[in-house]
What does this fold into?
Amino acid sequence: MQIGPYTIAPNVVLAPMAGVTDKPFRQLCKRLGAGLAASEMTISDPRFWNTRKSIHRMDHAGEPAPISVQIAGTEPQQLAEAARYNVDHGAQIIDINMGCPAKKVCNAWAGSALMRDEALVARILEAVVNAVPVPVTLKIRTGWCADVRNAPAIARIAEDSGIAALAVHGRTRDQHYTGVAEYDTIAAIKAMLRIPVLANGDIDSPQKAEQVLKLTGADAVMVGRAAQGRPWIFREIGHYLATGEQLPPPSLQEVRDILLGHLNDLHAFYGEPQGVRIARKHLGWYAKDRPENAAFRAVVNAAESADAQLRLTGDYFDALIAGEPPALSPAA
It folds into this structure.
């Protein structure tokens, strides 16, 4: 898949997720096979660009190209200025968020709420595309609600505005993440556009990725929640799409090494205690399929220092590797 001058290979992309796709997680997913990983959405209002959260979200030092930054907002010129600001700070692709279903975002008429005003969508897209010399991409949903599935109309506006690629989540805004993603709308959009289309929603295995690509004709798949605690899903999907063969799951030793490396990166990026706190949700996702998950989380969540968190996690996996019951106590 081609986005401007950038070849995205494999055609498996990490979905931007607020509170999840920070720099340490993006870099990990790219190392494990994601062809592209966009940042968490950054607010377009310049009053918030110097907050601690925004500074972390706009940090792309050492990140492999292409660097994609997602912006969110409602005012065309403000979004255009945010795009310029992020390009000046390293962004090589600008992604516009019109897919977030969160109430606090939609109440401000940002995210997927923008799909209710097609004229405003056109003004935003034209302003941002004309503001920067890099490719601009867009993420949307199938519509605002079941009775207003206007994604095809938005898709046409996007292509006419110069958008370089379009990602479509197979749910309406009012579905949030409930129910089952539908792909007919994505297929219809792909059939009518010349630009690349990415299919998003419920892609949680190599087989599902292949199925969705066949159903929609999309150029790539976008993986979100299924990558939480399982960042190696990108290499699994990429390998399967390329060869038709399924990779074996990672060994406990590899999972241990990946997780400890991820924790170290989180601690280094955020410092203590923020890095320790943010790491807790990732630890829960990594352990969610283990029978002792609840006990593990209770112990590791009690860790207040990076050293304790790393030690408890390492001891947990070392016991699993040795075939022994993990010693799930704070003194472990």
The two ends are 48 Å apart (CA to CA). Confidence is low (pLDDT under 50) at residues 105-109. The chain is about 45% helix and 15% strand. The first strand starts at residue 2 and ends at 3.
